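Notebook entry, cofactor series.
This is the third protein in the set we're modelling with a bound small molecule. For this one the ligand is zinc ion. I'm keeping the input format identical across the series so the outputs can be compared line by line later. Sequence and SMILES below, as received.
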Amino acid sequence: MTDTLKTLGWSNHFIRQVDYDEAADPPERPVRISAVHRSRLDGLSAKGAESLSPTASAGMYAVGDWVIATGAAASEPLERTTEITRRAAGEDSKPQLIAANVDTLGIVSSCNADFNVARLERYLAMCAASGCLPLVILTKADRCDDPQSYVKQAEKLSPLLSAIAVDATDDEDVKRLNPWCSNGQTLALVGSSGVGKTTIQNRLTDVVDTTQDIRADDAKGRHTTTNRNLRPTFAGGWLIDTPGMRELRLVDAEEGVDEVFSDITELSAMCKFNDCAHITEPGCAIRAAIEAGDLDADRLERWRKLEKENRFNTATVGENRGHLKRLQKMYNAGKERGSAKRKG
Ligand SMILES: Nc1nc2c(ncn2[C@@H]2O[C@H](COP(=O)(O)OP(=O)(O)OP(=O)(O)O)[C@@H](O)[C@H]2O)c(=O)[nH]1
Ligand SMILES: [Zn+2]
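Returned structure with ligand:
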């Protein structure tokens, strides 16, 4: 594997999917998608910047995808390591692909009025469902007396979770994020508007987007980020920035919810009744844990809310399943054609 491909994030996961013999310098080459337009894909390969035309509908590609390009034609995306989706805003219930092959999801929140445990849990569930590693980035540490108390609160949510408090306006401090965006590693930032995603991005990459001052009274920001892009970081990795995701809802994230709330799912397995609603049933392990002070009643309520929301969204999305199945079929047929072509 050349350094260039490795720096782009090419790995054994993708090598296993294609017979790409780099040494032979074949006309087909792996390209990482850096931007998705309506009928065109921007990408990066060992040869440099590429402009490709998609063979599948553009909606099937995401920033971060790997494709095999033959001439200027892009194959369907290779099987992804991770996939970040969300339910589109408004009445449209189709899951929307946001980014692919992201190693770490940086969940950005600030050490002020934006810090909200329920919101963090929601992002963590989304992260768990996507397959990315979560990193909670707590900005505005310089404006807070005790940033470490926020780090502790965040890390309490999951044993697998790392949290880091930074002053996003300080160049040196932001370099502490380098381990997550060097060596071809891809980092994506999510979080409410105004928490500092653009401020971080401006320091990790040489792309400068405008940031906007927020009103001091409510800690709410205004949208300044408008497009998604795969951008090289100074540290030798990649950053994908997505627009403020205030409308984040869960899609098929049941697995994610279970993972984030594993304490509750484990307890509920010990309830006397399989279908225990944890309200008034005798032998309820969850009520017992709350009474014993081992489980926070608020956390149970947050779990209920997220679970219910996820169930509702998944049901609505289910109505679109026929459509998705057809797409999947097309995709698989294309993949077979693609691999036959590559082999032949
Ligand atoms: N003091 C301080 N200010 C910060 C920090 N992070 C962000 N800010 C300020 O907060 C404001 C909003 O930051 P942005 O980076 O635009 O926020 P964003 O998350 O990109 O917002 P959207 O693009 O709307 O999603 C700007 O004025 C930043 O300078 C920080 O760690 N410390
Ligand atoms: Zn129970």
